[in-house]
């Protein structure tokens, strides 16, 4: 199999991997007051998985998984607690769609989706994220009545 063949897994496969890894999790997450905790926990053919710990009020900026050279699709499985996903709906008047994700919930985004994830609850939350291909960077965005504006690029392992 070539690198190209392994580079992108389907949304269904990503969701299955995220659910499987979340169910068989052995590493315990940490929680930090400054921001969400993130650790790459494994990688396999054409994908990698990250474990995240979220205290109440912690979240990401609006971002995509566009990376620097390789866009990545992703799936998120909620291991414990509750998270809220905000997804930008493109159009003449862009809007944010909101989805509540409880324990056992799994959701997928393609490599062009712009979204944010937050712990809007009063209890800690843990999630498992699978990216295909492996995530090298995220592009963050500002969002207002005029739409999306690129903000910055965050590199995996350095900026989160």
Question: Please, could you describe this protein's structure?
Answer:
11% of the residues lie in helices and 46% in strands. It has 160 residues and is mainly beta. It has a single domain (3-155), classed as Jelly Rolls. The strands form three sheets. It has a five-stranded antiparallel beta sheet with strand order 1-2-9-4-7, with helices on one face. Strands 3-10-11 form a three-stranded antiparallel beta sheet, with no helix packed on it. The protein has a three-stranded antiparallel beta sheet with strand order 6-5-8, with no helix packed on it. The longest helix is centred in the N-terminal third of the chain and has 13 residues, at 11-23. The termini are far apart.
What can be said about the biggest beta sheet? 5 strands, antiparallel
Q: How much helix is in the residues?
A: 10-25%
Q: Identify low-pLDDT runs.
A: 1-7
Report the CATH C-level class.
Mainly Beta
What is the 3D form? globular
Number of strands: 11
Mean pLDDT level:
89
Write the CATH architecture name: Sandwich
- CATH topology, by name, is Jelly Rolls
Count of runs of 4 or more consecutive helical residues: 2
The CATH H-level homologous superfamily: Jelly Rolls
Taking the alpha carbons of the first and last residues, their distance comes to 31 Å
Strand order of the largest sheet: 1-2-9-4-7
